[in-house]
Amino acid sequence: MGWTDIDLWIVIIGALCAMSAALLGNFLVLRRMSMMGDAISHAVLPGLAIAFLVTGSRGSVAMLIGAAIVGVLTALLTHWIHSAGKVDEGASMGVVFTVLFAIGLVLIVRAADAVDLDPGCVLYGAIEYAPLDTAFSIDAPAPVARALGVPLGADIAARVPIYIPRAALINGAVLLLNALIVLLLYKELRISSFDPALATTLGINATFMHYLLMSLVAITTVVAFESVGSILVIAMLIVPAAAAHLLTDRLGAMILISLLLAGASAVLGHVLALHAPGWFGFRGDTSTAGMMAVAAGALFTLAVLFAPRHGVLSRMVYQSALALRIAKEDVLGLLYRLEEAKAAEMLSPTPWFARQAIGGRPLVAALSIRSLRRQRLVSRRGEALILTTAGREAARRLVRSHRLWERYLERHFHIPSDHLHGSAERLEHVTSDQMRQSLRDETGAPSHDPHGKPIP
Amino acid sequence: MTETNRSITDTSFELPSLEQLLRVLTLADYNTRVVVIGVMLLGLASGLIGSFLLLRKRALLGDALSHATLPGIGLAFIVMSALGGSGKSLPGLLAGAALFGALGVACILLITRYTRLKQDAALGVVLSVFFGLGVAVLGVVQKLPVGSAAGLESFIYGKTASMVFQDAVAIGGAALLLTLVCLLLFKEFTVLCFDDAYAAAQGWPTVWLDTLMMGLVVAVTVIGLQAVGLILMIAMLIIPPAAARFWTRRLPRMIAVAAALGAVSGLLGAGLSALVPRLPAGAVVVLVAGAAFLVSMICGAERGVIVRWLSQWRLSRRVLRQHLLRAIFECAYERQHGGRRAPTPGASRRQAVPFADLLGERSWSPLRLRAAIRSAARDGLVQAAGAPRRLRLTAAGEREAQRVVRNHRLWELYLIQHADIAPSHVDRDADDVEHVLGPTLTAQLEALLAAQHAGPAAPPSPHALGRT
Lengths: 456, 468
Prior knowledge:
The complex is a heterodimer.
Chain A: H1 5-30, H2 36-43, H3 45-55, H4 61-84, H5 89-111, H6 119-123, E1 134-140, H7 142-148, E2 160-165, H8 166-184, H9 186-194, H10 196-201, H11 206-227, H12 230-247, H13 251-279, H14 288-306, H15 312-340, H16 344-347, H17 351-358, H18 362-374, E3 378-381, E4 384-387, H19 389-413, H20 420-427, H21 433-442
Antiparallel strand pairs in A: 1-2, 3-4
Helix pairs in contact in A: 1-8, 1-11, 1-12, 1-13, 2-4, 2-5, 2-11, 3-4, 3-5, 4-5, 4-11, 8-11, 11-12, 12-13, 12-14, 13-14, 15-17, 15-18, 15-19, 17-18, 19-20, 19-21
Chain B: H1 2-9, H2 18-25, H3 30-55, H4 61-82, H5 90-114, H6 119-142, H7 154-157, H8 165-184, H9 186-194, H10 196-201, H11 206-228, H12 230-244, H13 251-275, H14 281-299, H15 305-337, H16 347-350, E1 353-354, H17 355-361, H18 366-378, E2 382-384, E3 390-393, H19 395-418, H20 426-434, H21 439-448
Antiparallel strand pairs in B: 1-3, 2-3
């Protein structure tokens, strides 16, 4: 199937909604209130129902207001139960939104014979149909219209009306509102998110900030799921911000990244919705909103794995490199001590012997010996490993750190002499030249360690 | 069957007749009986396991988990249809749901363990992404040529009212199994909830215990989900335990109360929805549980709002009383001696203290001071001293005042000697502590201060008295 202007509008509406949610999501994630979006989107049901029963029409402004009021009420009640009842925050949220949802459900079912209303149609707007509900049209030159994918009539030169969907307008307005408030109150929001106590001492009303944020979340949620369905906004409130949180430590960067991820999820999600069922041999397309959430989840997974500092893989690489370095230093230290004890010829330390002696994972030990030989710190004499000149110098520094540390620990921490080795063994790997010098000065330039071995 | 179907699809709004009431109360209808007993057992089981979830601060895990089952249901339908069977075979759907529920929980645990994200973000990510996947999978399912996929939505909204005998049996079996496992591993689960680091240090397989506990949650959620729907399941896992917590501090009792509350909410909710036409059973059960929560939160015997408010009020009253007595004592003493010598017994009792002096002692409003005086006079600690707006201590009042002042000054001396606090600053610090000094602590203070101030009389103040 081809890409039409409908698809373009779906992506635009999805991206607008995703970005306005992601913008607020940053603060929710930092405040550890990520579940608030989920809670509010369930809890607004009675607000929608009551507004509907009062005004008797769907999609009215009254419905929006009713939902927003109940949304803020959710935050208020959650906070009240949490503080007055000393109930865990998650549990109080769970109590509030399930009860409110149940009230809404009862209201709707009791009223359903009088009016045409069912939980499904209240809860789920559908992004697929959002472009069809147009607000107004503007005339655009034909080339612009062609670029947008609007089907053109025979008269190429004429100006073509472009119909702007209502959902795009209101989601755009919400994005603008959120962006405006975040920009204006950036400093206040930032401080009160990280440290409410500090914010209060600085004269920022942290409680006001909290409820302002909750109101924005409520409005965003309601607007979004009235036009595009609830799952999209719940996902976008959390997932892009959580992924961005893994990618950076700066709030400004985090917000920008989360907006990018949200936009990317919208595009990717619609493409997936059109084509993914085909990959598995199914005909037709599937839910765009669902797939946008899945796309966000996929981007999140990538962030979990490959984030430069906080990613799982990068930490694994870092830890392996560290393990390798420690194993290499242990091999150097072992060879040096054997030479020192004049036992090198007698024991003839084979790679196997070294691996056994330093312990740890066999693979790491084997790799460390290979790496040492490649760096020409260690060479082979027959079967045995021996230190090269450079290797001996490196090993000397290491053993020197070790024995200086033993001296230092004995002197300042009163550790019994048979316990010194273990601590010094760990410390020797993190000792720089400068630290070694300070250790020497601090311990009075000793010639021997507490066990009577000379300090090289 | 037909009897209750009528009562559920009935569109009239008339009140239930006495006969109907009796039928529901005595569980005479087969269908009502199945629904009520099924929901009750589910309430029991989820109250039980929910208690552990609450204590482990994972109350919303049930929320994420029940959303995460959706793709499992859709995929199970697709797989079973592709294999040529009926797409809606219940065991297959349940297996799919359980698989994805467990997968979701595993993702949550992995995200919290291996990334810097906190639990709430992990819950939210898993919930929304899995649910999105579920919506997408159901979108595919609806376009499948094979059979109709209608009815899969009942997993979201539940179909409590049309619960059949097998559902009740499944729930009952799950509840029984769950109770058994919880009883067998009660000690282990308890320690895991309160101090998992300690459990690990004791050499217990905490990861496996945790996995088992979450497995139980998955089991009860999946069983309950298809019977009562997503929202009710979340509520049943959270609300009864949270309500039970207001009544007791002891875990076995809390679990018993939670299970009982769950069962009663199930019973009442299902009964009500059978009685009154067109009340969705799931929602009514949640509302009954919510009402029970509200009552518990306000009236709870252990942590309820009223109980804690009362104890706070009592404490503040006691502090106010003690402040008043000390103020009278010190004012009287100052009027007599100008603060030079240790007070002699009975001296402060004879001295009348004007109201205005007391007002200057602390930042009391006249109204508050008058209330404090009235309450102290009612208890026979102070009395009017002839002249207007003057009062003095009674014998009982003096004894109490002496004790209070003594505690205050002992604590001041202790702070000066052992905490190196300047005498000019010690008054405020001692103020915070004096009210909680019991007899044992007073004795220890005396011992520490080398018995230099033994006896009932208050030692002289280490700092100048009067207004500062």
